[in-house]
Each structure stands twice: as C-alpha cells, then as structure tokens.
Amino acid sequence: MKSRIFKALIAIIAPIAIEYIVKKISEKLDKKQQDKGQGPKQITA
User: Fold this and answer.
1) Cα–Cα separations (whole angstroms), residue 25 to 1, 36, 37, 39, 41
2) What gap in Å lies between CA 27 and CA 41, rounded to an integer?
3) What CA–CA distance (Å, rounded) separates 1 from 37?
4) How far apart are CA 22 and CA 11, in angstroms?
5) Which pLDDT score is estimated for 33?
6) Is 3 exposed, middle or buried (0-12, 13-18, 19+ CB in 10 A)?
7) 1-45 per-position pLDDT tens digit
8) DSSP one-letter string for the chain
9) Rg (Cα) of the chain, in Å, rounded?
10) What is the reported pTM?
11) Quick one: how far is CA 23 from the chain centroid?
C-alpha cells in the first residue's frame, strides 16, 4: 500500500519539479543573453 502511495506521489510531483527546473534554467539562459545584448543592439529581420 505504501508503495502505491509513493508511486502516485512521484507521478504527481516529478513533472512539476522537472518543469520548475527547466524554467529556472531557461531564465538563467535568458539573463545571459540579455547581458550579452547590452553592447551594440542587434536588429532582427
């Protein structure tokens, strides 16, 4: 019975945790790109 509850909790929490981690990583990458963009501004087509 405990293993069923444990598996259910993992099934619920794992995707939320993965999404949170991915969001944090993408925010850091965006910050790095913004820091690099402080120099000459690039115009996108």
Assistant:
1) 36, 17, 19, 23, 24
2) 20
3) 54
4) 17
5) 76
6) exposed
7) 889 999 999 999 999 999 999 999 999 988 887 776 665 556 666
8) -HHHHHHHHHHHHHHHHHHHHHHHHHHHHHHHHHHHTTSSPPPP-
9) 19
10) 0.59
11) 2
Phi-psi region of 40 (alpha: psi -120 to 50; beta: other; left: phi over 0): beta
Residue type, 9: L
Backbone angles phi, psi at 43, to 5 degrees: -100, 125
| Residue type (1 letter), 43 | I
Residue type present at position 1? M
Amino acid in the structure at residue 18: I
What the block records as the tokens of 37 is: 């963009």
